[in-house]
Amino acid sequence: MDSTERDISCAICPDTLKPPIRILPCLHSVCESCVKELLQSNTNDPKCQKCDGNITLEVEEIENLPLNRLLQIYIEMYINKTCPLSDQINNSSQFCETLLRHIRRISAILHTLRTRILEEVEESKRAAEEVEKLKDEIEASLKI
Ligand SMILES: [Zn+2]
Ligand SMILES: [Zn+2]
């Protein structure tokens, strides 16, 4: 699987994403049908296959997840070799190539953002642990 195939694959089923494409709270993309099916199946422990993160959502919340329209356009272009804005990628108009480049760049930015958000989450977890430790220490010292 190359990086493009990984980018356009669903985080639940192993296939290429089918529209509508939703973005999970972990920032991985899934087919709306997959996440609906997974949550309706009453699986004990629904997980994102890409990061192993728990999917703690109610079925009704799925429609509030943001749509990944950009990825949808990208998939249309990459898989179907069609461009929503001109005829054929194979004819490779300058415009399509430019658009594809932009989409690739935005996708790279999204990857970076995701890493940063996850780092922040880790950091705030660490900070919360520090506070807990401090609280314990204070409580312990007060008991003396
Ligand atoms: Zn899927
Ligand atoms: Zn994930």
Strand order, sheet with most strands: 1-2
Q: What letter string, H or E per element, gives the SSE order?
A: HEEHHH
Number of domains: 1
So what's the overall shape? elongated
Give me the CATH fold name: Herpes Virus-1
Coiled coil: 114-144
Domain RING-type: 10-52
InterPro entries: Znf_C3HC4_RING-type (IPR018957), Znf_RING (IPR001841), Znf_RING/FYVE/PHD (IPR013083), Znf_RING_CS (IPR017907)
Protein name: RING-type domain-containing protein
Q: Brief description of this entry?
A:
The chain is mainly alpha-helical and 144 residues long. It has helices at 3-7, 32-40, 69-79, 94-143, and strands at residues 21-23, 29-31. Keywords: Coiled coil, Metal-binding, Zinc, Zinc-finger.
What report would you give on this structure?
It comes from Clavelina lepadiformis (Light-bulb sea squirt). InterPro entries: Znf_C3HC4_RING-type, Znf_RING, Znf_RING/FYVE/PHD, Znf_RING_CS. Keywords: Coiled coil, Metal-binding, Zinc, Zinc-finger. Pfam families: zf-C3HC4. There is one protein chain. The chain is mainly α and 144 residues long. The protein has a single domain, classed as Herpes Virus-1 (2-Layer Sandwich), CATH 3.30.40. The chain has four helices and two strands. The protein has a two-stranded antiparallel sheet with strand order 1-2. Helix 3 packs across helix 4. It is elongated, with a radius of gyration of 21 Å. The chain binds zinc ion (2 copies). One zinc ion (ZN) binds next to strand 2. One zinc ion binds next to strand 2.
